[in-house]
């Protein structure tokens, strides 16, 4: 097993070893994929019961959050209705709060834009993510990717579905939708991991961002002269109401697809499998009736959203749920807590694909609602269906003492999904 | 029970969530904004989820009893 040397120079030529998948074990980047908190939800429920909105530091089990002395006092929102009200009021609560960290690495993207600029920019990229367009990728591309992953372990009778399935398929799907060369996939996956680990390794993320820019620049040049049936060809030609994307906007958007489109789907599909495997009656129901896969995925995104926090900044003195909020205050929306608000959901901590209340904020809400939610839904549905088509009698089969639980605070998913099965 | 669906196309930002929950009753038009199909094609629960789940609150469901006679 090898480790990844941090890249310290920008625009460094591609590492020739990057195309050797065996040389790269992403799980050595434990800072990227793991967090220490196993279950932050009891603490969140306790704070929510105290008040749906907290002003000042909160302690979710990792110590109190830090506050800038003298600055506006930050606010943390735990309640469902309160989160929804903030997400819908995009004039008072600005997304420019994302400029400082994510924006510096990804570039300027729709994530950090406010209206009216956001609406124009989103309209340029939105058509590629509509469910009708996605159907085009479903049967051949996504199913093919998942089949290929399952081929690697179907005969073995045992597998870790995190390392051998959920980790791999979303990045492969994105790479193919972008139209990247197959020989570039492992390099692309490495950059994806590096750029999404920005919170723990700034230099590595910045280097990956520059490497992706150079790489995409070449691909875009090629697609301008040789358009193909892929997303990059579409982005270099798209025009809405006379508006086009600049090269810099395309680089930024493509980079954003990595944390937004790869990491989230990997985490969400893992948590869905965890929910089903720990509730065998629901697993059996879904295996027997595949029309339930859709609502099972929605329940997984409610119960264990892959991203548990959304940030906004108050643009004026205001209030949330009757609690005063200062102009300039950072507002952390704990959508993970909101999705388990006992005022909205019965038995909120249970994974229950048959629950009657289905609305959730796992994809966010308001004008910034997840652009890729239909892709995430489709990919995960195909992955689960393919898995159930090919493997029977699926059940947890951990090594003694193996930790296969869902971990993390801001980003959550199972560390491993050790399963046994019989091939169909 | 007859159902009427009202949509605000100026508010609509084309999330497609309504089509996801109630595909027989909602779709996105060529301009990427909501169009109402058949209100009766989805049960009440799905229409409610579609309306509540609209991220910008562009959908209102109005239920009414069948007119007399």
Explain what the structure shows.
The complex is a heterodimer of chains A (424) and B (69). Chain A has one domain (31-59, 72-423): Cytochrome P450 (Cytochrome p450), CATH 1.10.630. In chain A, 45% of the residues lie in helices and 11% in strands. Chain A has helices spanning 30-33, 41-50, 80-88, 102-106, 117-125, 131-151, 161-166, 169-178, 185-196, 202-225, 231-237, 247-277, 280-288, 293-303, 335-338, 373-390, and strands at residues 53-55, 75-77, 93-94, 158-160, 239-240, 243-244, 309-314, 318-320, 323-325, 330-334, 391-396, 406-407, 413-414, 418-423. Chain B has a two-stranded antiparallel ribbon. In chain B, strands 2-3 form a two-stranded antiparallel sheet. In chain B, β2 and β3 (34-36) form a beta hairpin. Helices cover 20% and strands 26% of the residues of chain B. Chain B has one domain: Alpha-Beta Plaits, CATH 3.30.70. Chain B has 69 residues and is α+β, with helices and mostly antiparallel strands. The mean pLDDT of chain B is 89. The A-B interface holds A 87-88, 119, 122-123, 126-127, 130-132, 356, 358-359, 364-367, 369, 373-374, 377 and B 13-17, 19-21, 28, 32, 45, 49, 52-53, 55-57.
What is the string of helix and strand elements of chain B?
EHEEHE
Helix fraction of chain B?
10-25%
Low-confidence stretches of chain A: 1-24, 28-35
Order of helices and strands of chain A: HHEEHEHHHEHHHHHEEHHHEEEEHHEEEE
Which short descriptors sum up this protein?
heterodimer; A: 424 residues; alpha+beta; Cytochrome p450; 16 helices; 45% helix; 11% strand; globular; B: 69 residues; Alpha-Beta Plaits; two-stranded antiparallel sheet; 20% helix
Concise account of the structure shown:
Chain A is an alpha+beta fold and 424 residues long. Helix content of chain A is 45%, strand content 11%. Chain A has a single domain, classed as Cytochrome p450.
């Amino acid at each position: 097993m090898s480790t990844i040397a941090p890249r310290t120079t920008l625009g460094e030529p591609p590492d020739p070893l990057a195309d050797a998948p065996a040389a790269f074990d992403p799980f050595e980047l434990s800072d990227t994929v793991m967090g220490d908190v196993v279950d932050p939800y009891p603490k969140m429920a306790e704070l929510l019961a105290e008040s749906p909105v907290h002003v000042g530091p909160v302690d979710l089990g990792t110590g109190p959050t830090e506050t800038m002395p003298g600055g506006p006092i930050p606010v943390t929102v735990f309640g469902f209705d309160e989160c929804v009200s903030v997400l819908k009021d995009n004039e008072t609560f600005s997304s420019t709060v994302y400029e400082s960290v994510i924006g510096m690495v990804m570039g300027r993207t729709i994530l950090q834009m406010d209206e009216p600029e956001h609406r124009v920019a989103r309209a340029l990229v939105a058509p590629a993510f509509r469910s009708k367009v996605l159907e085009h990728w479903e049967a051949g591309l996504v199913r093919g990717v998942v089949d290929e992953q399952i081929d690697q372990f179907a005969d073995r009778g045992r597998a870790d579905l995190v390392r051998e399935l959920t980790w791999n398929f979303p990045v492969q799907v994105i790479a193919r939708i972008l139209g990247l060369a197959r020989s570039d996939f492992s390099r692309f996956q490495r950059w994806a991991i590096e750029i999404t680990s920005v919170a723990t390794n700034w230099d590595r993320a910045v280097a990956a961002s520059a490497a992706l820019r150079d790489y995409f620049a070449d691909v875009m040049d090629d697609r301008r002269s040789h358009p193909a049936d892929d997303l990059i060809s579409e982005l270099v030609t798209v025009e809405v109401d006379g508006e086009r994307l600049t090269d810099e906007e395309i680089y930024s958007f493509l980079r954003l697809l990595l944390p937004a489109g790869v990491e989230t789907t990997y985490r969400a599909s893992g948590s869905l499998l965890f929910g089903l495997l720990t509730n065998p009656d629901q697993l059996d129901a879904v295996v027997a009736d595949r029309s339930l896969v859709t609502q099972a995925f929605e329940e997984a995104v409610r119960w264990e959203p892959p991203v548990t926090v959304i940030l906004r900044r108050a643009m004026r003195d205001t209030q949330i749920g009757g609690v005063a909020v200062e102009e300039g205050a950072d507002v952390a929306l704990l959508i993970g807590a909101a999705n388990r608000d006992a005022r909205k959901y019965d038995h909120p901590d249970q994974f229950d694909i048959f629950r009657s209340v289905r609305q959730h904020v796992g994809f966010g809400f308001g004008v910034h609602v997840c652009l890729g939610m239909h892709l995430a839904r489709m990919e995960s549905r195909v992955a689960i269906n393919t898995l159930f088509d090919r493997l029977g009698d699926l059940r947890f089969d951990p090594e003694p003492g193996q930790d296969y639980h869902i971990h993390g605070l801001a980003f959550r998913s199972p560390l491993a999904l050790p399963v046994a099965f019989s091939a169909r | 029970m007859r159902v009427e669906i009202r949509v605000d196309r100026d508010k609509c930002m084309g999330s497609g969530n309504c089509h996801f929950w109630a595909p027989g009753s909602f779709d996105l038009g060529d301009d990427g904004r909501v169009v109402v199909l058949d209100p009766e094609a989805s049960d009440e629960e799905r229409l409610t989820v579609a309306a509540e789940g609209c991220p910008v609150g562009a959908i209102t469901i109005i239920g009414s009893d069948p007119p007399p006679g």
